[in-house]
Amino acid sequence: MLIVHHWDTDGITSAALVIKALRLEDFMNLSPPIGEFRLDERIRKAIEKSEKIYILDLNLVHEVEGIEKEIIFIDHHIQPRIKNPKVKQINPALEGNEAPSASFVVSSYFSLWNAWSALGVIGDIGSKAFEIPKVGELLEKEGLTKEEALRLVQLIDSNYIVMERESVEKAVGILLSSTLRELLEYEPWIKNVEAIEKAIQDAFSSVELKEGFAFIEFTSSFNIISKIARKAVWEVGYKGAIVVNRDFHGKGQIYFRISHELKERINMGKIIGALKEKGFNAGGKSEVLGCVCERDRISEALEIINAHLR
Fold this sequence. Notes:
By secondary structure, the protein is α/β, with parallel strands linked by helices. It has 13 helices and eleven strands. The chain has two domains: 2-190, inorganic pyrophosphatase (n-terminal core) (Alpha-Beta Complex); 204-309, Diaminopimelate Epimerase, Chain A, domain 1, CATH 3.10.310.40. Pfam families: DHH.
């Protein structure tokens, strides 16, 4: 059994939920290269050796169309239907419904709910998750406060933010073998968080504003681009944030997040489609898009986004 999952808290908790639900002992879990929405050679070789594959919280529809293996594809992002008959696609978005996280889709599919289900939501939508009654119920059952839940997400996410792919994959096993209270004191993740917080503070010191939208440009080897966008929209209260990392391990990173109130006015799926038509590696959902590109194509990608905003 192979489980391929996103590198963030939602992907990690979704993988742990699948393993627990199926009571798996013989499995391998892998994450794509951090920040890149693709199946690399390492994952493709693992797919060749696997009998059954789960792909979780990864909007990689085009990547699975040609794979001749049994695949369970669980997601919550905006995406077309998969034509490959070998793939079972489980996504409420296909029917026009929304799920706050892949962890909620996994939990619903397997009828297995615990605090991991809630952490996946918190990882994806932050404090707004606490407005969902189910999230509060699951945390209360575990005896976790809102602050502790937010801290756990921060700790789990630290693995991908410092760009340690192996640590992301190991995090699934750590989650399975530890109590959540133990994880709150897990020293390697605490050290990650301290380094990340300093990098975010440095990047956020150069914000430009245009009509309520924040434009933030920086350079860092840490994958902090989504955290900066969330801080700008969720904490500071900007309408939206376009964040650019000009040199992320030799690539350009673009992250665009809008406030919940603008979701009906800005068609994020259309912008993602326009980027893909031009050959950009882009993905996302109704409130956010991420794009990785060559550094000399950053301006082109930004122009596509700005054209839709105009």
